[in-house]
Amino acid sequence: MEWNRLISEERLGDKKLSSQASRSIFVQDHDRIIFSAPFRRLANKTQVQPLYEHDHVHHRLIHSIEVSSVGRSLAMRIGQWLVEQKLLNSGEEHNLANIVQAASVAHDIGNPPFGHSGEDAMGAWFAEQFAAGRGLAAEVEQDLRPEFTAFEGNAQGFRILTRLEMRRNDGGMRLSKATLGAFMKYPVTAKTRAAVKAAGAATYVGLKKFGVFSSEEALFEDVATTLGLPEEHIGEQKWWRRHPLVFVVEAADDICYNIVDIEDAFTTGELSYKEVVDILVRAAKPRDASAGDRSQAEHVAMLRAMAIGEAINNCVEAFKAHHQEIMAGTFSGALTEVCEMGPIFEDMRKLSSDHIFTARRKTELEISGRRIINNVMSGILPVFEDLAAVDWHAERLGSRSQQLVRALDLDLRNLSTPAEALHSLADYTSGMTDRYALRISKMLSGH
């Protein structure tokens, strides 16, 4: 791969727009994302800790802003090194930083309510529909069904950015292809990933999940072709190697959720002061680890900030060490795993797994969230079934369905197949905030 192609300013769906002296294409990308409705809704979506019980824990929007800050710092440092190595022109380090900032702020934009358990709940609901073999679900092609049963927030995010938001079905937000490339963690459809797995070749990190729905595959192919991402084939199907900046966005996410989840767990009482300080001191390597005259919360916050700084240093060095593999498309790890702090990050993940992800409050959220999502999707499905019955003419819907469309402000434009209808249902459900999902669930169930 070549850096001059990887940082292309060309926009998806709009080749005319160019950078301004005061505002680059990539800064415009960032601004389009943060002013969008899907981004605003992240303020009321669970990160890890259940919302509303404590004012000081992270939600998805704050997490996304923090990831973009760390990602910008990582990319700026890496960009400066690339300039020193004469792999980038002087000044282009700022482009790298702005691309990663934009991709990072968007990285969770497709996540449904109730955290990752919301993804599982949506996938399980779709699986039940396909198993029942009735209505719209029975008419969806077999090879498209994994897009629904393993519902993936990353693929939903790409769909929002490139199809749903702003210019619907005409490039979406029309972001730069560089930003879209840096966003795409898993450059493969569910159908192709299944074929690669069946062939026993799914060892590459970009194949861990699928990251693009079949409905948007052509859009990503456009992005990948412009950027020069290496293309792989399995029969007549194709997938791509990751954009190098994906590893930077992923590292920023890993740094934030590992370290900040630990701080949140102290705030909520799931980890003791000593447990949190011990792991953060190992990560931060401070010259003086004592609290001094700080409160416990202030001490933890100071160590958290220092730990993030140390993690940035480590991941920059890891990117340098693996740059050749990354550019060849053969690197298949994570910067937080291969860096010097890798064992500490692993201990953080274990601490979270043992004490945070199994906490009673989080488990209660997951149980109630699953029921809420089931209520919402089961309550809205009849509208799409009715729409199919009237040959996709929304104006011919029955009075009950029309009432639901008005009450829920459902968008029924451009639907003509069962798969499109189920994607539209997923668009609506995954776009909900935790609060709104609860309200709609109550309305649909009558209590």
TrEMBL record:
GO terms for biological process: dGTP catabolic process. It comes from the Bacteria. GO terms for molecular function: dGTPase activity. Keywords: Hydrolase. InterPro entries: dGTP_triP_hydro_central_sf, dGTP_triphosphohydrolase_C, dGTPase, dGTPase-like, HD/PDEase_dom, HD_domain. SMART domains: HDc. Pfam families: HD (PF01966). Gene3D superfamilies: eoxyguanosinetriphosphate triphosphohydrolase domain-like, Hypothetical protein af1432, putative deoxyguanosinetriphosphate triphosphohydrolase like domain. Residues 56-267 form the HD/PDEase domain. PANTHER family: DEOXYGUANOSINETRIPHOSPHATE TRIPHOSPHOHYDROLASE-LIKE PROTEIN 2, DEOXYNUCLEOSIDE TRIPHOSPHATE TRIPHOSPHOHYDROLASE. NCBIfam families: dGTP_triPase. This is Deoxyguanosinetriphosphate triphosphohydrolase. It comes from Devosia riboflavina.
